[in-house]
Amino acid sequence: MVELAKLFLRRGHAVIIAVVNPPDKDAVSADAVARLAAANPAITFRLLPAPSSCGEEDHFSSPILKTIDVLRRANAELRELLRALPAVDALVVDMFCVDALDVAADLAIPAYFLYASAVGDLAVMFHLPYYYPAAPSSFKDMGTTALHFPGVPPIRALDMSTTMLDRESDIAKERLRQYTRMPEARGFLANSFDWLESRALEALRHGVCTPGRSTPPVYCIGPLVLPAQTSGERHPCLQWLDAQPERSVVFLCFGSLGTFSAAQLGEVARGLEKSGHRFLWVVRNPPEHKDESVLEASLPEGFLEKTADRGFVVKNWAPQAEVLQHGAVGAFVTHCGWNSVLEGIVSGVPMICWPLYAEQRMNKVHVVEEMKVGVAMEGYEKEIVKAEEVEAKVRLVMASEEGNKLRKRLSVAKKMAADALKKGGSSDMAFEEFLRDLEKCSSDYKKTM
Confidence class of residue 227 from pLDDT cuts 50, 70 and 90? Predict the structure, then answer.
């Protein structure tokens, strides 16, 4: 959202970012917003008070359901904030804030979604209200059955978003309700670019994802990724990378929530050791050792010593954008969170896809089958990926003809991503088209007090 705000600022628009304070994390959210505000003084941040609890009877079968409920109950505060402003040209909301469409409609403000995942995922979600009720069973019971949606490659049922696997679950029913409402928005601002997902974008623009219903325009304005930090003290892993040959290092990072069991960490360690390649690995404690402060306790005995001449292991966090843009990095083992995928693309680094949760398995399909900028770590859907598979995929990307083809494809994708953001590029023009739409509808929607 901050990177989108910067686009508005560069076009001369004032921006307010409203953040809902979760009821149980007030101090954490306040500190996070304060840090964002300090780093982005041109953007106004408003922390909306945490909605009051409905009482002890509050019980949600999924954390996502709780989040959706909190956001829904925050609509009253959002409405008051918007009413207090002298003029509002548009309301841009997160994908979980579907019920904020009601606030926008009440105040005659055009509402848009910021869609922060793949456009291919959006095509699937638009079509799910038509597809889901007619499916013979829940996706969780359909295994490797190929599902066909407009604009994307076939997706195995087990690779669908984890929230939609059981159609009888509360979270699946709630998400389906949200997907049904999404086309009510004036449009979608997507963190992608035309060249990367042209087929999905074409399906959306031709309305085949929402048969019998109009599809709002989708403006691909990305890639919007956090810029690499160029000032301040450098992380030790970057200094280590400086001493490594070009494209010689495999970077493994699985996001802020990605964790593996101790057994799986052991398999990864053995695979890296047997591969013979240099590596930079961000390791988080396994659930069974979550309070362990010593990194060695999470890894096989002797692993760090055996690989000290070609490996660097970081606990919990590394500056991913800076790492990927370093010339020494030759492959990226990723959980396929969309921001990570985009960072890999803009850095020109081939990906080894190891999806963990949410829509990441769908992103894996887009990366491997549609974009052809990565390969899949086979067995990711099972309890354990074996060391032999880790070794094989590292060798394939780092030292094979297929790996060379991936690098050539990524070189093109990197250039196309940069071109999209240039003046007159597809993403620049899409944002201009969005702004023209705002001007066109201002007479109907613009709010004045």
Answer: confident
